Amino acid sequence: MSEKHPINEMLDRPVVMPKVLDYMRQSQKEFAEPINELENYAHENRVPIIPHETAVFLDFLLGVVKPTDILEIGMAIGFSASLMAYNHPERHVDTIDRYDQMIRNAKKNFESFGLMDQVTILEGDAKDILPELDKTYDFIFMDSAKAKYYDFFPYCMDRLKCDGLLMIDDIFQGGTVFDELDTIPKRVRKIHKKLNRLLEVIQNCEGIETTILPLGDGVLLVRKTQNRSFHNDFSL
Ligand SMILES: C[S@@+](CC[C@H](N)C(=O)[O-])C[C@H]1O[C@@H](n2cnc3c(N)ncnc32)[C@H](O)[C@@H]1O
Question: 3-state DSSP call for residue 162?
């Protein structure tokens, strides 16, 4: 029997309208002064850092999760690492980056914020560093080259404690991740394929729970629910 339902017009509207985005970017709280200054500096100088709505969410989420051991993949000038560590002496952040200029700037920032004891910079390519790590973490934030998220995923899971969270930034490629491959410029096809593969594999992967948020260019949150190896699921 067919039954008429009231139309839920929100279902047919994009979730993030420009005015909603403006609100989330411009009207949500500012961070403590040095972090706020670094965020403004990064935006003015077009240094790639997480957008404000993602930063506010990250800050909120860590307040709930209460991690002590954090791993970051993709540090840039240290904005997100500083945000996670500042005013939280109980937290330690190990953060990976391979780009000298970013590392020099991040060091200066950590020094001036008094975070040198709380942040450890791991210099080099995450593909070499991740397999060598032996520590485990409550929270991992991955914000590096998108074509590598799929490859790095099982290594992140190796290093994540059971019940720990992995947050991955920028998974939508501006929404083009859902377009047909032949409409995608050749230079970004690898990213397109790898992000699609990641989204596909996590759907049916045992031992994790996931959710996706339309913040910035898309955030994937993964909770590890079983202590197992994920390398076979993410075969190359
Ligand atoms: C988007 S930026 C990180 C921004 C930072 N999370 C923030 O919000 O303040 C990405 C960084 O990842 C680094 N990166 C990309 N691929 C990497 C890899 N395979 N190994 C190490 N660092 C990498 C780049 O050098 C760049 O500094």
Answer: strand
